[in-house]
Write a structure and sequence with these properties.
By secondary structure, this protein is mostly helical. It has four helices and no strands.
């Protein structure tokens, strides 16, 4: 036991560094598991929504049962709302829009007024501290 204590006292920095690295590793694994769990639950929710959107709603074939708790003017069955995803935009339209944005950016005139921002930053960096 005396040798272990002497080793720990002689290598305290390395031991602390090792413990810190293990704690970061454990925290990273814990965080990754939390993210994966959240992604899995989101995926399950999206799958349930997709199933609902693809279904035809409630079956209308079932006979309507009257109950003492249901008012006469209430509908007997409701249809599920159909959810559909928007159609993806064709790739060539996105490329045309991006190219058009680049052309507009190139056509804009460069500022010939005061010093550009980068020059102000450069002067600030070159000036002595405290001035």
């Amino acid at each position: 036991m005396n040798e272990m204590t002497a080793w720990a006292q002689g290598n305290w920095y390395e031991l602390g560094n090792l413990l810190a690295q293990f704690s970061f590793l454990i925290a990273g694994v814990w965080f990754a598991l939390k993210i994966l769990k959240a992604a899995r639950s989101l995926q399950e929710q999206l799958g349930a929504i997709l199933k609902l959107s693809m279904s035809e709603g409630l079956k209308q074939n079932a006979p309507a049962r009257s109950s003492a708790y249901v008012l006469a003017e209430w509908p007997t069955a409701t249809e599920a709302a159909v959810i559909s995803l928007p159609e993806p935009e064709p790739r060539h339209k996105r490329l045309i829009r991006a190219w058009h944005s680049v052309i507009l950016w190139l056509k804009t005139p460069m500022g010939a007024g005061d010093h550009p921002h980068w020059r102000r930053v450069l002067h600030w960096l070159q000036s002595p501290a405290g001035s």
